[in-house]
Amino acid sequence: MTLRWTEGKPLRWLDFDIENRPLSYLGSDFTTAEVTAIAASWADEKKVHCWALGEVTAEEMLLGFTALYARADGVTGHYIRRHDLGIVNAALLEAGLPLLTAKLTCDTKMDLVKRKDLSASQESLGEMYGITHPKEHMSQPQWREANRLTPEGIKETRRRVIGDVRQHKSLRNRLLEAGALGPPKVWHP
Length: 189
Fold this sequence. Notes:
This protein has 5 helices and 6 strands.
């Protein structure tokens, strides 16, 4: 598949994040994952779309996200090429839904300039750049409630995934301004 966009036209970037919970054991201590929430926002808009398992079905969550994904020229997030995109694609495969297509990506962890002895976590980079949207923390008891899909747990999951998207949008802009990100790369399913 060839990716196309009009030269000189700004690309439409979709910023997104997922939350997931352990689902089953593959062997030893390795677990599979189930998506519990997806948040997504256009880079040039304030609105954050969010789907949380327990409020909607897994199929509704995946279809809501993939509708936005299909309209995007590129997607951006933190560690999306090695985490989020693969987990979403696996969920689509398992649900018998259309899979993600190749997409231009800007991954603020994987595309960060080479460095040594400096954390590349979204939280650390956000603090270093003075991003006003903090990383939303969850304690172990909060994660347990989230993974059990209790009403309070779903509320905390939504807070976290939406907060991560808001923080990431600001962080990506600061990293671009600083010249600290390499060029976007195409993610292939």
